[in-house]
Amino acid sequence: MPELPDVEARKSRIESFGLGEPLKKVLVRDERILEGIKPTAFSRALKGAEFTSVKRRGKYLLVATNKNSTLLLHFGMTGDIVYTKKGEPAPPYSRVEFIFDKGSLHYTNLRMIGKVSLFPTLNEDEIEDVSKLGPEPLDRKFTYARFREALRGTKTTIHQALMDQERIAGIGNIYSDEIAFQAGINPERPVDKLSEEEIRALYEKTKWTLKRAIALNAELEKRPDLFIIPHRKKNGACPKCGTVLKKVSIGGRSSYYCPRCQK
């Protein structure tokens, strides 16, 4: 599932091509991906509009237009943004095509777990999906004190706490595993049993992991020596010590960790 670094990569694709150029047409290929608006109204509202900026909020992208509206994109399990040049065929599973003069941006989604919406506002506080999200972990204002506060009052596992979007926005199952691995902490550990030193390590590794992942365009397989994510599979081995990873279910989600490095 696309998480914070993956969504940042999709944000960059829109910034590289889709800003400041009028939309000639919007083609909805599968109306099931739309939420809260009919295909005809969606296409009509965006025709001739320009994308003026794009912002990531948690696992969402918010694309502002010069018509004082916000296009919301959520990628679910398999969503992506794909660019095609003018005249090129649409990529597989294109659900919505944003057509510009020189080419198109496609919202693709294989499993249809995700959504595309349009809101008549530029104020994200008026968009329910994002208004309830917790703080952004890479925001400068997200200090250790705010991280500590985000974890206050929960007895759940650190794996589940990091995934709670109302506590911290943008981290999912995969990067929760990575952060715990980098901090050397078993993901099944209850938050209220962690020491101050361990919580500090989680905070620092949250920042470090997400920044490094974004720098790698969310392609962590490029550094299998550093990250556990490329090894999250059957018989996968710890990149630090070579121990076979252990797979457990936490809150109904699969989690991988090194039984030697993560205590």
Indicate the topology.
Elements: H1 4-17, E1 25-28, H2 39-46, E2 51-57, E3 60-65, E4 70-74, E5 79-85, E6 94-99, E7 103-109, E8 115-119, H3 128-131, H4 144-150, H5 158-163, H6 173-183, H7 196-215, E9 246-250, E10 253-257
Antiparallel strand pairs: 1-6, 2-3, 3-4, 4-8, 5-7, 6-7, 9-10
Helix pairs in contact: 1-7, 6-7
Helix content: 25-40%
Please list the strands of the largest sheet in the order they lie side by side.
1-6-7-5
Mean pLDDT: 97
Q: What is the CATH superfamily classification of the largest domain?
A: MutM-like, N-terminal
Class of secondary structure makeup: alpha+beta
Q: What is the C-alpha radius of gyration, as a whole number of Å?
A: 20 Å
Strand content: 15-25%
Count of DSSP-assigned helices? 7
CATH fold field value of the largest domain: N-terminal domain of MutM-like DNA repair proteins
Order of helices and strands: HEHEEEEEEEHHHHHEE
Identify low-pLDDT runs: none
Distance between the termini: 27 Å
* CATH architecture descriptor text of the largest domain: Alpha-Beta Barrel
- CATH C-level label of the largest domain: Alpha Beta
The count of domains is 2
How many strand elements?
A: 10
User: What is the 3D shape?
Assistant: globular
| Main β-sheet description | 4 strands, antiparallel
